[in-house]
From TrEMBL:
<keyword id="KW-0812">Transmembrane</keyword>
<dbReference type="InterPro" id="IPR052173">
    <property type="entry name" value="Beta-lactam_resp_regulator"/>
</dbReference>
<dbReference type="Pfam" id="PF01435">
    <property type="entry name" value="Peptidase_M48"/>
</dbReference>
<keyword id="KW-1133">Transmembrane helix</keyword>
<feature type="transmembrane region" description="Helical">
    <location>
        <begin position="36"/>
        <end position="58"/>
    </location>
</feature>
<dbReference type="GO" id="GO:0046872">
    <property type="term" value="F:metal ion binding"/>
</dbReference>
<feature type="transmembrane region" description="Helical">
    <location>
        <begin position="88"/>
        <end position="112"/>
    </location>
</feature>
<keyword id="KW-0645">Protease</keyword>
<keyword id="KW-0472">Membrane</keyword>
<keyword id="KW-0479">Metal-binding</keyword>
<dbReference type="InterPro" id="IPR001915">
    <property type="entry name" value="Peptidase_M48"/>
</dbReference>
<keyword id="KW-0378">Hydrolase</keyword>
<feature type="transmembrane region" description="Helical">
    <location>
        <begin position="278"/>
        <end position="299"/>
    </location>
</feature>
<comment type="similarity">
    <text>Belongs to the peptidase M48 family.</text>
</comment>
<dbReference type="GO" id="GO:0004222">
    <property type="term" value="F:metalloendopeptidase activity"/>
</dbReference>
<keyword id="KW-0482">Metalloprotease</keyword>
<keyword id="KW-0862">Zinc</keyword>
Length: 301
C-alpha cells in the first residue's frame, strides 16, 4: 500500500509540476534544459500513474509492481485472496499502460509512413540545385523550408524561399533545419504528440506540447546562430512570417511562423544564461524524476 501511495503522490506531483511549468519564464533562456525537464516529467508521470494502480493491484502478492506482475504472468498463487477492487485496479493499470504504449507506437508508425510518402513525392516535384548543395529544392512559389527526419534525412526549401531570402538569410535557415536533423527533434516531439492523442481533452497536455514545440524551435535557433548571424536568422523568420509561409507537411519539421516575435526577440536581445547552480539543480531534478518511478516499480515499501 505504501508503494501505491508513493507512486500516486509522485504522479500528482508531476501533474501539478507540469501545470506550473507551462507558465515558467526561464525556459527560453535554456531551451534544451527545459526540454529535458519536460521529458522527465512526462516519463515520470506515465510510469507513476500506471504504477500506482498496478502497485495496488499486485498487493495480494506482497511484492513490488514489477515482481508482482511477473508473478501474475507466471500464474503464481497470491499470498492473499483477490478481491474485485484489486482486479479492477489491475485491469485499469494494464489498460492505461497499454494505451500509452499503443498511442506512442501509432504516432511513430504514422510519422514514418508520412515521411516515406513525402520522400516519394519529393522525388517527383523537387530537384537538386548547385547553389544549395545537399538540399532538395521544391518547385513551389510559396516560401517553405523544412527537413524530413530519419536515417535518410533531407533538408527541403522551396523556389519561393530562394527568391524571398538573401544568401545570408538562406544560410541561417538551412543551419536551423540542419539543427533539427542533427538533434533529432522529431523524436523529442513524438511522445508529446502521442500523449496529446491519448488525452485530447487535457489543457495541460496541449500546453505542454505547444511549449515543447516552441522550445525545439528555440534550441534549433541556438544551434544555428553558431554558424550564422542571429540577426540574419531573425530577419529570415520575419520574412517567412510576413510572406505567409507554406504549412510544413505532416511529420516534418520546418520553419513555423507561430511565436515568431518571441523567437526574434531572443535572437536579437539574448537574455543572460541561467546560473550554473540553477542548471545543476534542474539537471538533478530531471535525473530524480527519471529514476524515481522505475525505482518504485521494482521495490516494495
Amino acid at each position: 500500500m505504501i508503494t501505491a501511495a508513493a507512486l500516486a503522490a509522485l504522479a500528482t506531483a508531476c501533474a501539478v509540476g507540469s501545470w506550473r511549468f507551462t507558465t515558467a519564464r526561464w525556459t527560453s533562456r535554456a531551451p534544451r534544459l527545459a526540454i529535458i525537464l519536460w521529458q522527465s516529467l512526462g516519463v515520470c508521470w506515465g510510469l507513476a500513474t500506471t504504477g500506482a494502480m498496478l502497485a495496488f493491484a499486485v498487493q495480494p502478492y506482497d511484492a513490488g509492481v514489477l515482481p508482482g506482475l511477473i508473478a501474475f504472468a507466471q500464474g503464481e498463487t497470491p499470498a492473499q485472496a483477490w478481491d474485485p477492487l484489486h482486479v479492477l485496479a489491475l485491469i485499469a493499470g494494464l489498460t492505461a499502460l497499454a494505451v500509452l504504449i499503443a498511442v506512442l507506437l501509432t504516432a511513430g508508425v504514422q510519422a514514418l509512413r508520412a515521411r516515406r510518402r513525402h520522400r516519394m513525392l519529393l522525388a517527383l516535384i523537387s530537384h537538386d540545385d548547385p547553389g544549395v548543395p545537399g538540399v532538395r529544392v521544391l518547385a513551389h512559389p510559396s516560401a517553405a523550408a523544412y527537413c524530413v527526419p530519419g536515417l535518410r534525412s533531407q533538408v527541403v526549401v522551396s523556389e519561393g524561399a530562394l527568391k524571398l531570402l538573401s544568401e545570408d538569410e538562406l544560410t541561417a535557415v538551412l543551419a536551423h533545419e540542419a539543427a533539427h536533423v542533427r538533434e533529432r527533434h522529431d523524436l523529442v516531439l513524438l511522445p508529446f504528440a502521442a500523449l496529446r492523442r491519448a488525452l485530447p481533452w487535457s489543457k495541460v497536455v496541449a500546453d505542454a506540447q505547444a511549449q515543447v514545440e516552441l522550445l525545439v524551435e528555440m534550441a534549433a535557433d541556438d544551434r544555428a546562430r553558431r554558424y550564422c548571424s542571429p540577426r540574419r536568422l531573425a530577419t529570415a523568420l520575419l520574412r517567412f512570417g510576413s510572406a505567409g509561409a507554406m504549412p510544413t507537411p505532416h511529420g516534418m519539421l520546418g520553419v513555423h511562423v507561430q511565436n515568431v516575435m518571441a523567437r526574434v526577440d531572443r535572437l536579437i536581445k539574448p537574455a543572460p544564461e541561467l546560473a550554473a547552480s540553477v542548471r545543476y539543480g534542474f539537471i538533478a531534478l530531471s535525473v530524480t524524476l527519471v529514476t524515481a518511478a522505475p525505482f518504485l516499480w521494482v521495490i516494495q515499501l
